[in-house]
Amino acid sequence: MMKPGKTGLSRIISAGGYSLQGLKSAYRNEAAFRQECWLAAVLLPLAIWWEVGLVARVLLVGSLVLVLVVELLNSAVEAVVDRIGPEHHELAGRAKDMGSAAVLLTLLLAILTWVLVLIDYTF
Question: What's residue 83's pLDDT?
């Protein structure tokens, strides 16, 4: 018979701890994640300070958070692929390239969002 897992508040607290471990690990081990964190640290206060509407503010902040989320997922894919083995495999390379492409598209979306909001509230 299997031992039942944590439930309720205990499960939520444990999940929060695992999430913090994941953020710390990504920051320590992933240069791209660190760079994107610093970019967000600069741009988030600007998004809050800038006199824009609520929807525009959510788009600005959301685009930055989305970049971090996708970078975390990309790093997770890379870690799993690297764990499987160091030899080159077409599928492993494809998985890593697709994760990288997802990060690129998210960065382009964030840039587009910031540029369009800047144009909308400046001119």
Answer: 92
Q: What DSSP assignment string belongs to 15-62? A: HHHHHHHHHHHHHHH-HHHHHHHHHHHHHHHHHHHS---HHHHHHHHH
CA dihedral 56, 20, 38, 122 (to 10 degrees): 0
- Give CA–CA dist 81/69, Å, rounded: 19
Nearest Cα residue to 57 out of 49, 87, 67, 32: 49
Helix axes 54-84, 31-49, angle to 10 degrees: 170
- Taking 50 as the pLDDT cut, the residues of the chain under it are none
Distance of CA 36 to the CA centre of its chain: 8
Q: Does the annotation mark 90 as catalytic?
A: no
Q: How far is CA 41 from the centre of its chain?
A: 13
- Identify the active-site residue in 30, 71, 87, 90: 71
